[in-house]
Amino acid sequence: MxxxxxxxxxxxxxxxxxxxxxxxxxxxxxxRIGEYRSASPLLPISPKNTLRVTxxxxxxxxxxxxxxxxxxxxxxxxISAEALTRFRSQLAESNPAGFDADAVKSRHRxxxxxxxxxxxxxxxxxxxxxxxxxxPATPSEALGAVKHIRWGSLHGDLLNHPDDQDLVRLAAxxxxxxxxxxxxxxxxxxxx
Length: 192
Known about the structure:
Blueprint: E1 3-5, E2 19-21, E3 32-39, E4 50-56, E5 60-65, E6 73-79, H1 81-94, H2 101-113, E7 129-134, E8 147-151, H3 154-160, H4 165-191
Parallel strand pairs: 1-6
Antiparallel strand pairs: 2-6, 3-4, 3-7, 4-5, 5-6, 7-8
């Protein structure tokens, strides 16, 4: 496996934060805050085919780009305490831990089955499957209280149900994690 250590800049809208490459993050034993994964349903299920972002409570961020990306492999950096606080706040605001996949699917089935003349339904069969693992914020919370979310057509469903606040918040959470990948790629492009 190829490992790249790089410098990320910024987190979220409204400012940038100091980040620095940190090889120690590769072996950090800090508690995970959250992990995001995105995989194509058209490829074999494998860690090497999965985009992954893991944020740890010591400020370490590990990003893995799939083998088919231009710059595949693992990268590690440490974000500032301020950036970590902002990430936690924005993640709590998007509330992915409150996402109830069964309730959302039930609402969508009901909306599709209702008679709405002229309604166009978009069906996406090859959209990436996204997954989140969200970990308790404090040690006083129940052990093993990991919230696992799996959704197969977030962006297609948002086209069909743009007012569904659960999907909007899930997309906001996804964007928080993907921002680390975007900044990784933007920084790599400026280096080359």
